[in-house]
Design a protein that fits this description.
Rossmann fold, about 50% helix, four-stranded antiparallel β-sheet, alpha/beta, ABC_transporter-like_ATP-bd, ATP hydrolysis activity, 22 helices, PDR_assoc, ABC transporter domain-containing protein
Amino acid sequence: MVKVSSYMNNTIGTNVLLAHDLGTQNYWYWIGVGVLLAYALLFNVLFTLALAYLNPLQKAQALILANSDESKDLKIAGATSDRNTTTEKCNRTNVLEVSTEGTRRKGMLPFQPITMTFHNVNYFVDMPKEMQARGITEKRLQLLFEVSGVFRPRVLTALVGSSGAGKTTLMDVLAGRKTSGCIEGDIKISGHPKEQQTFARIAGYVEQNDIHSPQVTVEESLWFSSALRLPNDISRETKKAFVEEVMSLVELDELRHALVGKQGSSGLSTEQRKRLTIAVELVANPSIIFMDEPTSGLDARAAAIVMRTVRNAVDTGRTVVCTIHQPSIDIFESFDELLLLKRGGRVIYGGSLGVNSIDMIHYFQGIPGVPPIREGYNPATWMLEVSTQACEERLGLDFATVYKNSDQFRNVEDLIEELSVPDSGSKPLKFTTEFSHGCLTQFGVCLRKQGLIYWRSPEYNVVRLFYTAIASLIFGSIFWNVGMKRETTGDLYLVMGALYSACLFLGINNASSVQPIISVERAVYYRERAAKMYSSFPYAAAQAL
């Protein structure tokens, strides 16, 4: 049934159109259909032409260093498995001694070396619903089982294990990155109980994924990190000098003005990005650094460069811990100590590796039934092969139990007991605030960074400018002289509709065009927020402004 208005005996729909000064003739239907088809044809043609003839706005390219001597310094990267590893280690030590001497000449910021001890650490999470559906009645799932060990200054420790052994879980628990679950055990920093608020200020965490803002340079990335994480009592000149020192330490000084770029398409290579990730943590002047698989996804040459950077960090006196999955011979020989986990989060070896991994090899070869390592074989690969669950079943033993009953375990326990007692007169590190700087400083640094990001995003700025110009032409032509006619309420409706539509379309465009930048910066925000660089409010205010 058609509803008829009492006004002029028209339908309600007709009166609405008349009130807005819109035509009511039937041919307007076909005009609307024609306009839709015309727009569809126009945009599809333009889209096809753009795909066919337009090139990407940025070409994917790698950064080539001007220093031609770099290849001479990286001969270690081409090393084969049958090379004399003892000679390699001596050569590497000589290179690192030169680097360290240069560091001492210039002077690093002072920091307090720390020792981390952890004893009988257990970690539980809620039982997954999938496992409960299979009939498992326990309410908690244990991921780490009585894990004990020591991390010391100037010692590079490797956390190794097969997939699902709990390497990253253990490192996250020790670093305080786990926000859920239940942690049990004794964790001490230089003999004092660990306080997470204080520990977060003296610890660095190098994530496996290299997350950085693409629009800033290498030097700016380090400067923003140092400006937000170094204490207030350090002058601006000292911070700049420290940034210079760290860039030299990780061998990024020749790339200081290079934009970070997007991973896999432009800017820094994968290996250079990994060194930048390490440098971002080093400029915070941490006492201990956790690294989650720093060589993952890198070829032999790139992995050698990264490990040389890691060794440089260790030789400054810091405590460095790395998770490593199936390392090569050269990478494995870079480590000083090992903490080996099996599936289920249980320790099966802890302690010194020795030259050419001789200490670890002697331990496993001393277990009855374990086959000896072949000459020239990778000790890390052999270690993981002989400690599998299938090998345990074949030998009829549990490597975790064997380790608990070994002299190696007792030596580690004695070392933990010795280092768990603080030095006489020493006091635990304490900070009165959660962050190094107040909200105003955090806001200023974040605002400067956001300004650089948007200034160096020409695609985003051009799209916004172009769309605004086109939208103004369209709305201006459609509503030309509409504001001059104000005789009826329909005239006012048209003016208000024009203002509403213009604001709505521009707002939607701005919100949609900024999404690519926001999506990248969101990941950067999560990393920087976890590193205690700033709180949420200053960052949100800077982003909105």
